[in-house]
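We treat protein structure as text, and this decision shapes the records that our systems exchange. Because each token names a local backbone shape, the row as a whole describes the fold. For reference, a complete record is included directly beneath this paragraph.
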Amino acid sequence: MKIIRDTHEMQAWSSDRRREGLRVGVVPTMGYLHEGHLSLVRLAKAESDVVILTLFVNPTQFGPNEDLERYPRDFERDCALCEAEGVDVLFAPSGGVYAEDHTVYVVEDVLSARLCGASRPGHFRGVLTVVAKLFNLTLPDVAVFGEKDAQQLRLIRRMTRDLNFPVKILSGPIVREADGLAMSSRNRNLDAASRAVAPRLNEALRAAEKAFAGGERGVQALRTGILKALGDLAPGELDYLEILDDQSLSEVGETIRSPVLVALAVRFPGVRLIDNTTLNPEESPHANRPK
């Protein structure tokens, strides 16, 4: 496995592979890898001839008083995991991603207005900007993102379409711990009390799926059931719970008649966790959900 830290070298490496007729895949990450990330690498390998995993803790997507400094890091561990999975290049830029006097960002005004965009102002401006930069630096044919970050995935698809990036966007299903908690690099920062409560996010979504499978289509009834399943989240507190159109992230009215995204976020001491599921009236709600 090759480790590249220089942005110009990364771009040149990808340009050479493309001239050789090879299909390039990229998996953008902020590091501290887990099985969820590695599952995305496997998807990229199935669709590409060579795979780049990017490792960059992007400062522009963190707001004031968020966990930029506390975000977990372990470069040697990440290297070993990438090598074991057959990653061709680990791109961990040491500089050059942002000019010191940079002033240009990628901004989306509609899909980013709700959910994490409402509670983390400026977050998605940072996400879209760095993803656009990584596309330009790695020159991929295919890019793979996880479905846990549901709003992010929809925004990246929209940016790719609207800015005409010649990149195929693939998504991988949420990978979970044995107790159902969605895998996240931030999970290691949960204290014991928070870790004991955190699986309720998944349990509440499962309750919604069960009610939906039983015929419930009322948005308020589903919301009430989710809140009941969440119960007392102390030491955490609910940030948001939304049931929105699966693609436009707009409100759906009182009754679900087309696919919806059910998304929630909970703030624990020093850690904010998100989770989601989709409900589709035309198919089993469990069809695409990992067990």
Notes: The beta strands are 2-4, 24-29, 50-55, 89-91, 142-146, 168-172, 237-245, 260-268, 271-279. The first strand starts at residue 2 and ends at 4. The mean pLDDT is 96. The chain has two domains: 2-172, 191-279.
